[in-house]
Amino acid sequence: MQQQIENIYREQSRRVLATLIRLLGNFELAEEALQEAFSAALQQWPKEGIPANPRAWLVSTGRFKAIDQIRRRARFDASQQQLVQQLELAAGEPEVPPGFDIDDDQLRLIFTCCHPAIGEPARLAMTLREVCGLTTEEVARAFLAKPQTIAQRIVRAKTKIREAAIPYEIPERSQLPERLETVLGVLYLMFNEGYSASRGDMVVRGDLIGEAVRLARLLLQLLPPPQPEVQGLLALMLLHAARSAARTDAGGELVRLEDQDRQLWDRVRIAEGLQLVEQALGQPGFGSYALQAAIAAVHAQAASVEDTDWPQIVGLYDVLLRREPSPVIELNRAVAVAMRDGPAAGVAIIDSLLQQGCLTEYHLAHAALADLYRRLDEREAAVAAYRRALALAQQQPEQRFLAAQLAALEAQAGGPVADPDFAGATDRKPIGKPAE
Amino acid sequence: MKYLAMVYYQEGKMRELSQQEWDVLNRECMACVEGLQQAGHFLAGEALQSTDTATTLRVRDGQVATTDGPFAETREQLAGFYMLEARDMEEAVELASRIPPARYGSVELRPVRELRTENNDQIAGAKFG
């Protein structure tokens, strides 16, 4: 029973929280109500059984707990009295205000967190914490910032939402386009965090991937006719998620794209992703998500690394770079160029990126370089680059992977390296994380 | 995660409150503890008597030396503490913001450092050995 309740907590708590935030209009009160609702569940459910709709039970219990809490505080503060009355009135109303195409409190919360009045870094930090359920400490690690800095930023953003009375709602159709870009960015970040956890001992967090895909699907329904960038983002997620089972081995270690057992790739997701890419690219207005999805689609269609259409991938990166110049995209393009034209061509591009001062702290740049040097039999340069990559990597499976590569290279007595190999930077994640 | 919330205020200023204001504040503090307890956030906490009642002790060369005080020389004095259980720093900030004397003085919030037999976390910024 305890285990069942824990599972319900893991699966439902963020959605219950999103609903409570909408009902109570207050993040803090909602967090507290969520906690009290679950502690009530832990006491009652073992005796009375799990209710037919646990989420509705938790929302309703949470709301009553919040009313109790506000009453207690109202004894000291007359201004709270009004809120109690409002909530008691609202308790009789239907759950969802009419007129919404889609009832999804999490999507609503994302749109609230992405309000233009809230600064970009706070927006992302707040969404990761409130919608994805990461702790402030985890968000801080993802942004390489101090927890107290992130906590302050979120506190200020929440205060802003309260003081400016920003409503918890999916905005009017006319306001959607201006906020869509940020919302897509948030879903992309959520997926990234799930696809490649920024730090720690797990590579993949399936719950975040599933949630990002679910929300992207909702967004696609919300915005007829289908928007190419929404299709592109969903396709991108599906095509990457399709490889999840092949990306780690039984021991949880990373498996590079070229070493993956392509039989393990999820054909259903790939088929859906390919169809969406085709639709997206067939419309005017597609952008970087659709292009990234197109690159993922080329990989998904190849039977092996050798069989991959590298010239097409390089071409897609060229288009992507024109639209969205970024050193991380240039790095990924360099890996593709190395596959098309040989490792020396890739080394030249990455060297020049590093000389420009881009990516010097980005471990994958050094990992990619190391691998290319190895293919060129430049062992010393490869060892140095692996060491640099290892020093910068934050995630344990990645560190272990790099350490193993380094050890294998050091064990060789400078002999030729037989394995054609490449860095696998293209499979790390769609395109790096937005830096702060 | 455990967080310690240390409540500071100016004792001199608090003495200016009327008996009734002081009682209301203390009742509020009790209600705050009650609320934190019900939500599972309250691990421990106490209000302290004034700094006039304090004794400070040091052990140097195996000798215990005690002095009175500290007296109210610093701007704000430690008035009490709450040991909180919170999901993260953000939640701890939120909980601590409801501690009533935060309106008068300040609350210092710090994550608890878990003591281990070895490989203890270094205090950030401090140099050892």
TrEMBL record, chain B:
<feature type="domain" description="YCII-related">
    <location>
        <begin position="1"/>
        <end position="115"/>
    </location>
</feature>
<protein>
    <submittedName>
        <fullName>YciI family protein</fullName>
    </submittedName>
</protein>
<dbReference type="InterPro" id="IPR005545">
    <property type="entry name" value="YCII"/>
</dbReference>
<dbReference type="Pfam" id="PF03795">
    <property type="entry name" value="YCII"/>
</dbReference>
<comment type="similarity">
    <text>Belongs to the YciI family.</text>
</comment>
<dbReference type="InterPro" id="IPR011008">
    <property type="entry name" value="Dimeric_a/b-barrel"/>
</dbReference>
